[in-house]
Amino acid sequence: MRSSGIYLHSSAQHHAWFGFLAILIPSALFLIGIFLIENYLINSLIEIEGATLFNSSADFILLKERVLEFSNNKLSEGRDFLFISSFAATVSYLFFGLGNNLDFGSEALSVVENTLVYSIVKLRMDSNLIELAIGLTVSIVSFYFSLKRISSKTNSRDKIEFFIKVILFGCSLIAVMTTIGIVVALVSETTNFLKMYPLDEFLFGTVWNPQFRGGGALGVLPLLWGTLYVSFIALILSVPVGLFSAIYLSEYATKRFRSFAKPGMELLAGIPTIVYGLFALVTVGPILRDYFAQPLSIGTSANSVMAAGLVMGIMLIPFVSSLSDDIINAVPQNLRDGSYALGATKSETIKKVILPAALPGIVGAVLLATSRAVGETMIVVLGAGAAAKISGNPFEGMATITAKIVNQLTGDKEFESPETLVAFALGLTLFCITLLLNVVALQIVRKYREQYD
Amino acid sequence: MSLILRNRREKRFKAIGFSAIVFSLLCVISLFASVITAGAPSFKQTFLKFELDLPAEKLDKSGEKDITIMKKISTVGYKKILLQQLKLNLDKNGIDYSQLSKKELQNMISKEAPAQLRYAVLADPTLLDKTFSWETLANGRVDAYYKGRVTFESAQIDVMVSPKQLILADVMKDAGVLVVKFNPQFFTWPDASDLRPEAAGLGVAFLGSFYMMLIVFFLAVPISVCTSIFLEEFAPTNRITDFIEINISNLAAVPSIVFGILGLSLFINFGGLPQSAPIVGGLCLTLMTLPTVVIASRASIKAVPPSLRDAALALGASKTQAVFHHVLPSAAPGILTGTIIGLAQALGETAPLLLIGMVAFVREFPSLPPGGVMEPATALPVQIYNWTVRGDPAFVERASGAIIVLLTFMIAMNLLAIILRRRLEKRW
């Protein structure tokens, strides 16, 4: 860029941004550091001073919450956490100290708690002061340095663009960190669970009977059976229907028919699963019970594997159909033309040429649908019942892995009992199953795509 | 094989395909029909509509409309006054209620009604000076009678309602004291306890869902746009990039309940955030919707023709300038559409929210953001679940009504996405 005879590498805006970031980043880092140190100090303060008051970590958390609440109340008294009033409070603390206005005599606090609250408030105010001092110093110093560094030759733009790239890269790491977070959370709690409950009894136990007071049987097999049974019924319904819909839509349907049938099916895909759950519970379940199970005397419950499976099948139809649609459309046209040229009818072409060619992709789609079915929660929570058992009768209620995760983790939770922690082991099992299915399915689909690309 | 046979097979095959589509469309129709027939009655509610002439000397003992003194009169006091006023009005209309015991007559009125009247009087003490027409919520069983769930036969074996009450209700309806009308409070009231289905509303759930959508919008959009720009424009082809891409596609297929487990152990147990708060729900849903929005954004960034980038680069723009000044604005409509679809998906998600405690019974409205996101709230789909698992069929009706509301929102969002795509999308 050229300006008044000097060649500039960056525009004025870039320099301004550079200056801004040069001040912001160091100050922000310092402040975050102080905040973390402050929290650490407060925690250890409570731990040391209050050691007489707690026997377990739960007691510690209780005391901590109580003390922090009081100290926060004291801090927010008279000022609203607004920046200016916080500043004013800090300055007045600098000149007048905490004074006697921290008197809790009237409030229900023990002596230890009282001193704790006092020390915490003092610590907070001190750290406010340090924050203020360091923040101001750091920003003035970095302002001075950035001002000195900016000249017509400074490549501010490169620096800012590097900063932008770092932010972009950081954002894309969030997905990775989420996966790591999931794995760490599941594995660490599962190890805690396995310290209390043997692994082989969890994996191969055929009885699921958690007791409120502990000591129940927590075998995963009945849940796995329920999960697979429901998924199996769902796939029996959704794979043929979805596949045939896709075939009809891509090979036979007129443009006009497709223009309303396709959005109609996509409507099914957008419906939240809780709606399907209610549909299974209120409509499909009772119909199955009244017209099939009871007349044939094979079941009396409105909650059944059949109801949940059928409704889940309906949910999966558009999923299977749109995946198969993509796959069928990816089969090259010249394969079709070749078959027609040999005198085959449309259905013969589909059966003998298109489907065999698309088979790997369809297998991948079925695996993806299975993974969806295994991980589906609301339909089975509402539709499949709560009794964990291994039985062949589809008109009985059975529990699944996801339903039991919800069961064990809603309501009162005790993170020291195997009854709660088993939910994490179940979650890990579920995560592994779906991950395996997905990886295999994506591999198959990718290989298949390469074949025709 | 004869040609006739082959043609017959052809026809049969086509018919099977056609019936598969008809079957799925029938499923759509029956699903909607079942939800709408079950849920439509929840928008109407039975009220007892009569004149109130509140005795000022009882409700305002100081006579000075001092709220602190008036607050001392509890709902029990209002309950007696409501019954007394109902009797007065029935006498005025010449309706005979002598067949009913005092308790039966009292039970015609919802248990929630005195609290509502008390709230109204405390909000506007001048009500004490005048006679005004007031709609008192009728008992849930009386309401159910007009919605067809309660009949004289069922009332005989029901401890909550007697046939005499239903007869009186019919008489009152003829006299215009009892009305069945549209119930706007279904959208504004908070949840109500098990015995008061007639007073349950979606107010808190609306707010909770709205807060969560705000969080998802302000977190998921920037993060996923940055991710997609990085992956599409800047990422070198190496193992790290591959790893990120595989991660995102796997994350898209992780069951939603796993995100609930993540939220529970990461945000609540480890991060110390409060249970049942929209902030935790919003964070879980953000992580869950990330892959959806990333995939949509990447597709629309990819669709921007390279000539646009090349032109900007040729004119001396840096890579970053080319991306942020030219590629991103051109891809914006596609990103917006993907965002709306992601938000709609997040709005309907239930399972993760159950695990982070949003299924709790919350009657207090959370305050305005940003503070409000840390306070307990429920969400629309969780409220539906909550009502579904309660015993009273009146709650199932309300759950279906809430589903109608939820589906309306989702269809509106999807329509918006389609319209925006048609309006804004550039064809290259």
Please explain how this structure is put together.
The complex is a heterodimer of chains A (453) and B (428). Chain A is mainly alpha-helical and 453 residues long. Chain A folds into two domains: 148 residues, no CATH class; 251 residues, MetI-like (MetI-like fold, Orthogonal Bundle), CATH 1.10.3720.10. Helix content of chain A is 75%, strand content 2%. Chain A has a two-stranded antiparallel ribbon. A two-stranded antiparallel ribbon of chain A has the order 3-4. In chain A, a hairpin with a 2-residue loop joins strand 1 and strand 2. In chain A, helix 1 packs antiparallel against helix 4, helix 5 packs across helix 15 and helix 7 runs antiparallel to helix 12. Chain B has 19 helices and three strands. Chain B has two domains: 140 residues, no CATH class; 222 residues, MetI-like fold, CATH 1.10.3720.10. By secondary structure, chain B is mostly helical. In chain B, helix 11 packs parallel to helix 14, helix 15 packs antiparallel against helix 16 and helix 16 packs antiparallel against helix 19. Chains A and B meet through helix 5, helix 7, helix 8, helix 9 and helix 10 of A and helix 1, helix 11, helix 12, helix 13 and helix 14 of B.
